[in-house]
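Our consortium's second objective concerns turning raw sequence data into structural hypotheses that experimental partners can test. To show how far this objective has progressed, the report includes one record in full. It was chosen at random from the queue rather than selected for favorable results. The single chain below, 289 residues long, was entered without modification.
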Amino acid sequence: MGTFTLGCAVWTCRDWLGNLYPAKTQSRDFLRLFGQRFNAVEGNTTFYAVPPVSTLEKWKRETPEAFRFCLKIPRDFSHQGDVWPHAEAIVSFHDHAEAILGDRLGPFFLQLPESYGPAQGPDLSRVLNQWRRRCSTDINVELRHPSWFAEGELRQRLLTMLTRLNTGQVILDTRPVYEGPGDAMSLSQNKKPRLPVLMKSTADTIFVRFISHPIAEVNLPYFEEWARRVEQWLEEGKEIYFFVHCPREAHSPENARRFQALLEERGVAVAPGPGNGRPPGPTPPPRGG
């Protein structure tokens, strides 16, 4: 049987005060409280800078042993054209984080810009092969150029490479915000692309980024579909990391809780209790807005 780990993209959001966190919580306590409510977080902060040792040590102190950080490769390495020139820096980033966080690390993820297309396939292959040879932690790659998603020989070569390296492709699901009512994505400072949702597994680890709609009910049919898929992957022994986003970040924790509740209602083998989006006590009602 596999494992299911639920989280959000960040732990610092003042809109969560009075809902996910007590109303008067200080920002210095956000991570500690987040770690009591979720089992993992996307480490988006590392996209902007490599954290110093003191910061990594603080992250480790303030989270429980079961908590996982899924760190994003810094943009200075991933968003400057070819990635191979930065391959040594990427390995050093892994080693720097692994030395402090150790088994608190979930899979890293390498997000590539929309400009990074199939012509750079050899570059990607070199980078991922080096990661597999020299890094002890899994990595998943997020591709955004539309050509990577077209069925055909190119797509098959990509899947063959990822399968050989036991490396997953990040599954980015933006359907709720593009197919749902209104222009929900216009609320986001960091707009996500509209790409096909390809649920092909190429690795033991599966990394899902679900961009939820601010109107909770809009997400339900997508959550139903994902619940069936999660159940299947768990039966296959997969290690699943599922992160819930929302263009209005205030709604992300509640949407994550709704997905957890749906999994439990369906009898899917996911762990209940603290760490699934609920505080370790009575949950206050969500704020409106």
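The partners drew two points from this record. Residues 236 and 245 are 26 Å apart (CA to CA). The first helix runs from residue 30 to 37. Both points have been shared with the crystallography group to help prioritize constructs.
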